[in-house]
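Chapter review: from sequence to fold.
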Amino acid sequence: MQERKYNEGVILAVTDWIVDNLDQRLSIDDIAQKSGYSKWYLQKLFARCHNETLARFIRKKKLAASVVELKNSEATIISLAVKYHFESQQSFTRSFKQMMGCTPLACRKKQLSGERQQQLTECEDPCVLCRLESVANSKKMPEILPPPIRSGQFPVRRIDCVMQ
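The token string follows.
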């Protein structure tokens, strides 16, 4: 029982350290060394405590911090990729799109209201704010209409497929 509390304390300290050092190159080996645990045991404890892998947590936190900078500064996407130690702008954009659901440029273009802008820095998942803003701005979903029915007419040019 006492060991579990100690482990949780170490994991919380590691979590705080990661959040405070997002602009550093964070390797699992270095974090394990700082924690005093082996790489494998630290990842196991971290996943048990946070319900996600250490690498995913670091990536998610770095991308959330980059969303705040995209919204609040004129920093270029490449400079954010470099600042948060992604291998390239392409890997930054790929990770961003995979985690956040849109590209960094699309994220920058989405405008937030003043209230949501203030919530941005405290929000665990900044994309939730963009989604809420989109819902608030949409008055009514456009009605989806079926294509018009032509009275028995086919297109003038018809393409025939022949398999050989």
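Two observations follow directly from the output. Confidence is low (pLDDT under 50) at residues 156-161. The chain has nine helices and no strands.
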